[in-house]
Specification:
Layout lengths: L2 H23 L32 E12 L2 E5 L4 E6 L2 E11 L4 E16 L10 E17 L4 E18 L8 E15 L4 E12 L2 E7 L5 E6 L3 E12 L1
Antiparallel strand pairs: 1-4, 1-12, 2-3, 2-11, 3-5, 4-5, 5-6, 6-7, 7-8, 8-9, 9-12, 10-11
């Protein structure tokens, strides 16, 4: 399995296990020995009325899908530049969120985007495979609008930081770089049950410019490389669980 496939498989496995763990922790508990909130029914069978501020409001989400990275310009300190193109990559994310109202929610999201570099002389794609990896850490706000009994439309945006770098199949890599990140998203949600829902989503992730690292210019002299900010479009399948 190549480096891209290994990273995607490892990331997917970790996030699926996290979702499974949350589902197990969300199973009904017996609180018969505790104290109910003021005004709750007492006596036999009253354990189900204990107040929980997170009940049906906290959720864990997982998404996976295709990522399409726009071309960027990579330049050095003497003014030489080239266009870097990308192939179709993959994105996966995990979100921990809270529904403040039936319409508004906020969430923390950690993701992984891996995009193969299709063409770059500077990065060496003529003789080796090169991947561009992004790790976005975002805070999102979402608004949901019901469309019927099971369907809803939603949209939102977020800001945060994106950690990124290039790596090749010989084990070489550029230094990990951090940049300001922003994203917008929209999708359709289908409610499977009181606990589970399924979504089809689009996300647009953008960053500010990057310091790619050191290298050599066309004259063979040491130089520093810098790139434009990255713009990534993703089409995703999302599964969320409330607990």
């Amino acid at each position: 399995m190549n480096s891209t496939g290994t990273k995607i498989f490892a990331g997917t496995t970790a996030l699926v296990l996290a979702c499974s763990a949350s589902s197990l922790s969300a199973q009904p508990q017996d609180y018969s020995t505790g104290s109910p909130y003021p005004g709750a029914p007492t006596g036999p069978g009253s354990s189900h009325y204990y107040w929980n501020p997170f009940n049906d409001k906290l959720y864990l989400g997982f998404d996976i899908g295709a990522a399409f990275q726009q071309d960027i310009t990579l330049s050095d300190s003497i003014g030489d530049s080239e266009k870097v193109t990308f192939g179709t990559g993959a994105r996966l994310d995990c979100q921990l969120g809270y529904n403040f109202t039936p319409n508004w929610a906020a969430e923390v999201e950690v993701g992984l985007v891996i995009s193969p570099v299709a063409q770059s002389y500077v990065l060496g794609t003529d003789f080796m495979s090169v991947d561009y990896t992004e790790l976005p850490v975002m805070v999102n706000v979402l608004y949901t609008r019901p469309l019927g009994h099971h369907f809803s439309a939603y949209g939102g945006g977020g800001i945060g930081g994106v950690f990124s770098g290039y790596s090749n199949d010989f084990g070489g890599s550029t230094p990990t770089e951090s940049a300001f990140g922003f994203q917008v998203m929209a999708g359709i949600k289908y409610v499977i049950s009181d606990r589970w829902d399924f979504r089809v989503a689009y996300k647009f992730l953008g960053t500010t410019g990057h310091d790619v690292g050191s290298g050599y210019d066309s004259n063979g002299m040491p130089t520093e490389f810098r790139s434009d900010g990255n713009l990534t479009h993703s089409v995703l399948l999302v599964l969320t669980c409330k607990f």
